[in-house]
Structure formats: structure tokens, C-alpha cells
Amino acid sequence: MELSLQHIVYLLLVVCTGLSAGLCFTWFNSVTPGIGRLDDLDFLMSFQQMNRAILNPAFFAVFFGPFFLGLVNLFLFKNTSSSFWWWLLIAFLIYFVGVVLVTVLGNVPLNEILDKHNLKTLNEVKIKDLRNTFETKWNQLHFIRTITSILSFITLVILTTQITK
After folding, report:
1. Which residue of 17, 112, 131, 157 shows the fewest CB atoms closer than 10 Å?
2. pTM, whole model, 2 decimals?
């Protein structure tokens, strides 16, 4: 089978979405439960450092790749079968709403609240309050990101059976 530009761009979309789903699952499955066992100060300090470290080109490519590649794929496949295009749109919308919007409107503001604090200057009560403000809400939002990134990825994988038809 010869790979066209459409196929290559679609493959990139599937790979980036899979990587994003894997990142979300790994974070949900091991990172947050692991640091959740730390005391309040160590938890907050660890989360601050991870939030700062993850902001790098590889993360941005994996995280925003499905959004931009999804738009490109919707354009490239606009003249294909109606059901394929609609399922592609559904996968795109699941990722956009459940991952991108939840992150931008939910997780990032919580990260910014955490980041603006100099944790070493806060007393024990303020540390506990900050963790209570942050942890449960952040984890709930991240659960949404995990489920929706996986659903988007599964949809795209299933669609690969239709791409050659």
C-alpha cells in the first residue's frame, strides 16, 4: 500500500493522540496516586516541580498535536465518506473538549494557583488549605482528560480500518 499525504498525516494524528492518552493514563495511574501518599508540603512541592518540568517542546507537541493534526485531517478528509469524516470529527471534538478545554479552563488555572505560592514560606494550615483546594479538583479534571483522550484514541484506531476503503 502506498502512503499518501492523507495517510501520513492521519498516522501522525493517531500516534500523537495515543501518546497523549498514554501520558494521561500514566499520570492518572501512577503519578498522582504516588505523590498523593506524600505529606502536604512534599506533595505540593512535587506537583509544582512536575508542572514546571512538563512544559517542554515534546509535551506541547504531544498535547497540542492531536488538536492541530485533527484540524488538518478534517480538512484533508473532507471529501471522503461521510461516516468516516463524522467519526473523525467526533474523535476531534472528544479530544478538544475533554482534553484541551478541560486543561486550559481547569487544570492550568489550578496549576497557576499552585505555582504562584512560595511553599517554603507558608505555614502548615495554609499548606493544608492549598492542597485541599488543589488536589481533588485537579485529579477530577485529569480523570476527564484521561477518559476522553483514550476514547478519542480508540475512535481513531477503529477508523484506521476505514481509511483504506
Report:
1. 112
2. 0.93
